[in-house]
Amino acid sequence: MSIGATSDQWWKNGVVYCLDVETYLDGDGDGCGDLRGLTDRIDYLAGLGVTVLWLMPFHPSPDRDDGYDVTDFYGVDPRLGTLGDFVELVRTADQRGIRVVIDLVVNHTSDQHPWFRSARASTASPYRDWYVWVDEPTQDPQLKEVFPGDQQGVWAYDDEAGQYYLHRFYPHQPDLNVANPEVRDEIARIAGFWLELGVSGFRMDAVPFLLELNGIEGAPSVDPKEYLRDLRAFVSRRRGDAILLGEVNLPPPEQRAYFGDEDGDGLHMVFNFSVMQRVWLALARGEVACIVEALDALPAVPFDSQWASFLRNHDELTLDQLSDEERAECFAAFGPDESMQLYGRGLRRRLPTMLGGDRARIEMAYSLLFSLPGTPVLFYGEEIGMGENLDVADRGAVRTPMQWADEPGGGFSTGPPDRFPAPMPGGDYGPARVNVADARRRGDSLLNWMERLMRRRNETPELGFGDWHVVKADQPSVLVHRCDWQGSTVVAVHNFAGADRAVTFRLDGSDDAVGLDDLLDGERLALDGPEVTLDLPRYGYRWYRVLRRGARITP
Question: Which of 26, 66, 85, 247 is an active site residue?
Answer without folding.
Answer: 247
